[in-house]
Amino acid sequence: MKPVYINSAVCISAQDTLNAEFFHTMEAEMTSVMLNAIAPNYKEFIPPAQIRRMSKTVKMSAVAAQKALIQAGVEMPDAIIVGTGMGCEEDSEKFLKNVIENNEEFLTPTHFIQSTHNTVAGQIALATSCHAYNFTYVNPGSSLEMSLLDAKLQIEHDEANNILVGATDEKAVRTMELYQLNGTIKKEEDLPADVLNSASEGVVWGEGSAFFVVSSEKSESTYAQLGAVTFINTLEESEVSDFICGFLSRNNLNPSDLDAVLLGFSGDLKSDRYYNTAQGIFKDADQLYYKHLSGEFNTSGGFAFFMANQILKRKEVPEVMKINKELSKDSIRHILIYNHLHGEDHSLILLRKA
Questions:
Q1: The pLDDT value given to residue 329
Q2: Which of 137, 183, 217, 284 could serve as a FRET partner for 123 with CA atoms 20 to 30 Å apart?
Q3: What is the per-residue pLDDT for 91?
Q4: Within 10 A of 90 (CB to CB), how many other CB atoms are there?
Q5: What is the DSSP string of 161-227?
Q6: What is the pLDDT of residue 301?
């Protein structure tokens, strides 16, 4: 099968991931139930007149996409594929608020136009004058994985050489209020949030935007090779082992062949049990977690994918991500990411050292 390389990886998150020195300065935030992405100086990347009309997720994505293309040395991608769970939440809320306040009359279309989920991919295409394949995947917890699989298939079938793939989601005030009411987000009294040893349900919610250039050819900036991607909507806890081992077997690997595993522990007592089961499969691998750094959100897998690329590039693992600190691999060649959202949309992503 034709190899698929990852030639750039850029992320805006609750950590200062645009800073070259972020790898050793990341810190977990355990005193808040919601994490804000660290925004860059948007004026350095986007004309001020456009910034005012952009929602947070569009701005984050515009910057991350621009930097990913520059990092990969690609002026014009052959395709733009974006995954998002909630799309442009802020503009959606503004539009619905106007509908209510104006009794469904005299509505300006701006917020409605900008609230659609494919706004991000469309804005990137406009900024780059890209008229090629442009697609947005919308799914609660596996939008990134669908986007990566689409890109992988296109490259393997010689339909494209350089594809910009992104994952993005933002927080919006009213949606966060609803998440707190239905117990999706932890209560303040459950803080500080110990993600690995949580005794309460709910998660710490976050936001972020991650973009990657996947390619049919290696370059000087190549981090890793995308080995395989799979996902399933529902899974019983007893089926986790078969799900993971079957995936590895199809890719000619055993659990012992993996050097590191990123597990999506979110601090939710109810759904983290899947990861507890997975831990037993990978006793000989570096077990890592990441949502104490990024927060949980629909496309938090983008942060995990970014970190996996960074680990392969830098050939080391940040201490703040380690679960089994007593184990340390001399070299890292295979990394597996296992993630789900609230016990649904289970996904596996395999990366190899390029």
A1: 75
A2: 217
A3: 86
A4: 22
A5: SEEEEEEEE---HHHHHHHHHTTSBPPGGG-S--STT--SS-B-B--EEEEEEEESS--TT--EEEE
A6: 97
pLDDT at residue 203 in the model: 97
Domains of the chain (ranges; CATH) run 5-215 (3.40.47.10), 227-353 (3.40.47.10)
Contact 144, 83 (CB under 8 A): yes
| Contact assessment for residue 320 and residue 28, using Cβ atoms and an 8 Å cutoff | yes
CA distance 24 to 284: 24
* Phi, psi angle pair for 341, to nearest 5°: -125, 115
- Return d(Cα 70, Cα 40) in angstroms, integer: 16
Instruction: Write down the pLDDT at residue 71.
Output: 96
Which of the residues in the chain have pLDDT under 50? Answer: none
Note the pLDDT of residue 13.
Answer: 98
For position 106, what pLDDT does the model report? Answer: 78
Centre a 10 Å sphere on the Cβ of residue 138 and count the other Cβ atoms it contains: 16
Q: Are 185 and 179 in contact (CB under 8 A)?
A: yes
Residue 109, judged by CB atoms within 10 A of its CB (0-12, 13-18, 19+), counts as: exposed
Comparing CA positions, the residue from 309, 321, 316, 310 lying closest to residue 351 is 309
CA 47 to centroid of chain Cα atoms: 26
Angle between helices 89-101 and 56-72 (to 10 degrees): 160
Strand partners, 115: none
Q: Two tokens at 176?
A: 């966060």
CA 343, chain centre distance (Å) = 17
